[in-house]
Amino acid sequence: MDNSALNCMFKLIVFLWIVLHCDGAILADSQQQQTFRISPNDIEARLGEEVVLRCEVDHLAGEVQWTKDGFALGFTNDIVGFPRFSLNQNHSQGVYNLRITNTSYDDAASYQCQVGPAKHNRPIRAGAKLTILGEFHEVSA
């Protein structure tokens, strides 16, 4: 074998080693990672108002859900057990807003928009606090 053939074979072996041992790291670096285009912001709302916690994602790879004080609200538009809550989704636009109608004091909480991991994408999350304003009337027994 001449030097040219050995050099070519060496380059091929190095290339194959890199591909087999990097476990997709090269691909992960070349792909755009999922990121928040719009993260939810803290909101103050009056009792009975409607609020929308915004969450928009670029380069979405994982699934999106919201949590309320750490409790997962799910992945679908209708949120079981929370009839005044809905997830307004537009997958093609990357929009995953949480809508709460007729706010009550029970809605005051920390909310989080969470995007799960997917191949070569780490999970991301962003939070906001909802504060409900209004007079609180103590009920006497």
TrEMBL record:
Domain of life: Eukaryota
Predominant place of localization: membrane
One of the record's GO molecular function terms: cell adhesion molecule binding
GO term, biological process aspect, one: cell-cell adhesion
Keywords: Disulfide bond, Glycoprotein, Immunoglobulin domain, Membrane, Signal
An annotated GO cellular component: cell-cell junction
Name this protein carries in UniProt: Ig-like domain-containing protein
Signal peptide: 1-24
Compartment(s) of residence: Membrane
Domain Ig-like residue range list: 34-131
Topology in membrane: Single-pass type I membrane protein
